[in-house]
Amino acid sequence: SRFTQQELPACKPILTPKWVISVFLLVSIVFVPIGVASLYASRDVVEIIDRYDTDCIPVANRTDKDLKIQYIQSSVEKTCNRSLRVPKHMKPPVYVYYQLDNFYQNHRRYVKSRSDTQLRSNSSANDTDNCKPEDTTSNGLSIVPCGLIAWSLFNDTYSFSRGNEQLDINKTDISWKSDRDHKFGKDVYPTNFQNGNLTGGKKLNSSIPLSEQEDLIVWMRTAALPTFRKLYGRIEVDLQENDVIQVTLENNYNTYSFNGKKKLVLSTANWLGGKNDFLGIAYVTVGGLCFFLALTFTVVYLVKPR
Amino acid sequence: MTRGRIRAKLRQSHLYTFSCFRQTTTETEGRNSVQGSRLIHCNQPHLHQKKPLKYCSNFISTTKYNVVTFLPKAIFEQFRRVANLYFLLAAALSLTAISPFSPVSMIAPLAFVVGLSMAKEALEDSRRFVQDMKVNLRKASVHKGNGVFGFRPWRKIQVGDVVKVEKDQFFPADLLLLSSSYEDGICYVETMNLDGETNLKVKRCLEVTLPLDDEESFKDFTGIIRCEDPNPNLYTFVGNLEYDRQVFSLDPSQILLRDSKLRNTAYVYGVVVFTGHDSKVMQNATESPSKRSTIEKKMDYVIYILFTLLVMISLISSIGFAVKTKYQVPDWFYLQPQNPDSLFNPKKPALSGFYHLITALILYGYLIPISLYVSIEVVKVLQATFINQDIHMYDEETGNPAQARTSNLNEELGQVDTILSDKTGTLTCNQMDFLKCSIAGTAYGVRSSEVELAAVKQMAIEEDEVDLSNFPLHRDSRHGSGKNVARASEIELETVITANGNHKKSPVKGFSFEDNRLMNGNWLKEPNSDVHLLFFRILAICQTAIPEPDGDTGSFTYEAESPDEGAFLVAAREFGFEFFKRTQSSVFIRERYPDSGHPVEREFKILNLLEFTSKRKRMSVIVRDEHGQILLLCKGADSIIFERLSKTGRMYEEATTRHLNEYGEAGLRTLALAYRKLEESEYATWNNEFQKAKACIGADREGMLERAADMMEREFILVGATAVEDKLQKGVPQCIDKLAQAGLKIWVLTGDKMETAINIGFACSLLRQGMKQICITTMNPDTLPKDGKEAVKEHILNQITNASQMIKLEKDPHAAFALIIDGKTLAHALEDDMKHQFLGLAVDCASVICCRVSPKQKAMVTRLVKEGTGKTTLAIGDGANDVGMIQEADIGVGISGVEGMQAVMASDFSIAQFRFLERLLVVHGHWCYKRIAQMVCYFFYKNIAFGLTLFYFEAFAAFSGQSVYDDWYMLLFNVILTSLPVISLGVFEQDVSSEVCLQFPALYQQGPKNLFFDWYRILGWIANGFYSSLVIFFLNIIIFYDQAFRAGGQTADMETVGTTMFTCIIWAVNCQIALTMSHFTWIQHLFVWGSIVTWYLFLFLYGLMSPLISGNAYSILVEVLGPAPIYWAATLIVTVACNLPYLAHISFQRCFNPMDHHVIQEIKYYKKDVEDQHMWTRERSKARHKTKIGFTARVEAKIRQLRGRLQKKHSNLIAS
Predict the structure, then answer these.
(1) Does residue B50 lie within any of the structural domains?
(2) Chain A residues with CB inside 8 Å of B1150's CB?
(3) Which of the pair, B1038 or B1002, is modelled with greater confidence?
(4) Chain Cα centroid distance, residue B450
(5) How many domains in chain B?
(6) Chain A: nearest CA to B1137, how far in angstroms?
(7) What is the ipTM of this complex?
(8) Residue B491 forms part of a structural domain
(9) Is B877 within the bounds of a domain?
(10) Which value, to the nearest 10 degrees, does the dihedral of the CA atoms of residues B953, B955, B958, B963 take?
(11) Does B205 lie in the same domain as B252?
(12) To bridge A8 with a disulfide, which of B245, B675, B1074, B1081 should be the other Cys (CB 3.0-4.6 Å)?
């Protein structure tokens, strides 16, 4: 048969100069517009970033790392006020993020320290083998939710006001729907959580099931890089240009021991997501490069045809 | 060889004294077992059921494994590969917490890969098992006691059993022949399975056992055999039989070997001596040496490089980890550094670092392509099936397809540099045609040999070329060569036609003689018709063949020892001297004379037979005819016969010598025939002497026999000479021409004498007129003084250095040299101190012909070429004498034609005809080489592109050993997502079609030059993989840095980034392979694009699974990534960015630095070959490799010569 004789009909594309030039041209024709479009989209996004980790510590404690830690671990009220100016009109929804830096959520010891089965259903509450070293309390009771990730849940809080107007933060629907529906059980309630003598982060209301603890759900999606943002909530009103927004935050989370920064981010989003110039630049660059190559090949082909 | 013989002799004499000693003290025989002796109680197999006389059973097994040992042994075999062992360790460690992956993701691919290899092993072994069982269950007739014989399967036969074997059956074990259906106890044996020789051999039993020739007589038969221990020497046997209180010595002629066949004898009885694996044939079965291809050896180095890289980045990782753990991690409260475990302990960073090293070694294991070996194996098996299936290599006459017997050398076929070829049966058919003869000084036979035909044809060409001179001199030289090429192909065509024509004209196989002076009894009218009569009688009588009546025609066919002899007998038959019956003592001839209507049957009593050996180069029979006249009839090499002629017998010497020279030039094999009349008394005295020599047992027996024979073979009277044509196989000259154009060097190693070899060289265009022949020979050794060895060597060395000097001084670039060397000289030239000079000379010569070489020398020459030049060698041969050469060469090719299976069994590839070698090398070799080379390069590329991204991520994850990808992705990467495209590349890729390969043999040079697997290319691919990994990782990381990636404001988590990155990898590597391929059938399309689709499909299905399995990848495609434009945008830009440099590189190469196949592809693409015939032929001639041998070279040399002459004329004209 033709198969065994290796004579199957085949297309044998070869890279003739015409083909090469048209391929490069085609790529540049497609890429440059995409790049321009995403650059526009990126410019459309309004972003306010406010670093507050140092500013929210009393001046006396700022000088030294140990003092910072001492402050953050003390039980005093750590409220802090910030004011942000809106540089451009921000259409709702305005997303509120917290950004941590130098926080290795992708450390293997950290990533592994969770129990999906336990999160999912009440019946496997004792399934805490993967959660070491935060699996059980000192007297052997299972912790729900167990593991380092849950234990170190971020616990700064933000509230916003514009002049005298309180701006509501919508904290629902900030996590993936599939997570709420299928990964975090409706019948799983926090137990023995943050009861040890060492408190990692936020305490959870033990009367709310995990599927509704959206801060936890967002936090449990570990980030890929040591610098990451996580969604805190949404402001669902327009923010006009030059509005000044007062932020009242409680500075609870200890990033000082590992010299991590904390930032508050307000950002709009469009089809591209948040502000992302890089994608556009990359597309334009590659498109431009292809155009250049097409040009070079054309010139060479014309000057010195084979 | 010689050493073996000496040892055998020693043992024989040793045993002989032993048996003498034993004769006197028969009492002590029971415990008197000499070392190395085997004791066999004939007809008492029950004595062999317990130790120490329990020998191994007749059950044979050639399988590597059995049911019990298969698993452990096969697994052991698998894990002898370093890579597999590494993966096994990784899999074992994956069961501990040290591994970065889940155990299943480590074990599953390993199990798959190892399981596949083992399944292949099991399949191959089961085939062997089935074959063994077939043999083991064959039935043989065995004495069951009281003179009753019954059938029993072979495997139940024991040592000591008496077995009856009937005609055309195989011997079930090594037997001692007791008696046969002939009253003198001889039988004929065909040993094709042992040594590949098709002729029959005679075995003869001891006289004492002659009466044991019916079943009853075995009732009370007992005897004791003492013999050597099992050994692989087929031609020796030392032992004795104690029977009737007497001791008789045994020799190899009483031993019937297992796997040989009884022929022409109704039945034989024999005692089993060696069974099963003790038998000589099984002892002889050597595992053919396992060969590995150059690419595979080089691949190992690349793997080592990758291993080094792996260890290096693992070290970097672990040091990074230790440093981080020591200095930074204590501050990372979220890791609870105050609760350390063994793998993570900030207080003991060094220990943690060490554990992490192991983790890292496993993590980056993706740099080593686990599936590489198995993919290559799969690809090679498929390639081999394509070779087996190729209809163009199927021989219709014999029904033999080409066969790749080992699949792991396919790509080596594309890198062959030197071909070492046997002559007889390989270049020639090994079918002898009686063509001419010279009787009483008159030459007969009008038909011309192929060599003569070729010469005539060449003359015709030359005349053709003279026309060329009529063309104006200044015309386009390109045009000229194009024209010549066209002409050359016409000539080729013509050759084919005449070759076909040749087949019809020979109705009688082995007889192409045509001369009315001799046929139909006309010879009687010739002068000296009595000499003619003698001539024909010698042809008919002086032989050892056995006639077999041919049922249909009533005539006879002959089982002859050599094809020459067969041709003589056929010739004699055609002349009217039909040999029709042979008894032990007589030969019967049916003579037809035209004057008397019916044939006369004559009986010639054979008194003695002096056999042919290669040393004696002659054979004689002494016969007594019906009148009582004793005659010695002899045929032999002319030189031998001529020096033994009597003074009166030289009547025709001059004329015959002239004829012999003519025949030699025509490429024919010649023998001289002579006779001698003997007086009764003369014979009687000599016979006494001869019998004495024959009766003597001992080391000197051979020598004595030879001396006795020598005494008699003197004073000959010359009768005439015969000329037999050894026909060239079909298509051999054309094939050699093509191979030469492909840049291959061809050496011919033959056992024939120099003249014949040179003639054949001319016939197949290996030699041509105008070539400078360098003949290196020794002076006649007899004329040398005794300490001549040094002198001989010096002489040879002189010849070699002179010749080398001559080549160096040669200015004409077109000059070609041919080296011809004979076996004796070769023996000296192959010695350590001289072989390099010899090789240096041989490499400079366009063709090399070694004649009179022994099988061992063939192997030595092969090794010299292989090791001396470091290039790939291919040995091709058909007979048992080529086995050494075939096993020694990088690739052994066996011709599965007429002569036995020995060569084929030892070979790596078998083809039915020499001419298929062209297609095997130029098409399949070329393809397979490119396929495997590209495939291996691509494999490294893809695993580096993938594996390094894991490393980069570590730098962002505190070197903790966390991978950014889901375990399942990584598991599927090598096994499913990228394996099929690369296999389709390895199996189906064709740079140019097979016709183009054959039209442009020069393309083949890409293989021997190793253009596709040199270090530049390998490192280029590695660099490409490195670049791709950088692009994939960093573009993705920056694109998904910290901002939201969707309109919904969600930020990317590790799963999102990992999945996107992995999507990019899948796209990038599959697009890369699409760019690499130049030949897309629907299969490639399906596999390449199918792999990408499979990835999305997998992602979708994986997302559907319970989140307990899929974790964060739960509905990742549908919910998270699918709706995000940035995901698709990232895929697009990364894919393009990855492939852009490669694309630019290959387009640049193609435009400005095209390789041969690029040009041809383009021509084909534009269909220029159809539109523009002229350009096509021009390209073809341009692409021709400059050759110095072959048909084309001949034509070109002629053209040059004529041009030169014209030039001279022209200038002369101008001058005048």
Answers:
(1) no
(2) 14-15
(3) B1038
(4) 28
(5) 6
(6) 7
(7) 0.96
(8) no
(9) yes
(10) 20
(11) yes
(12) B1081
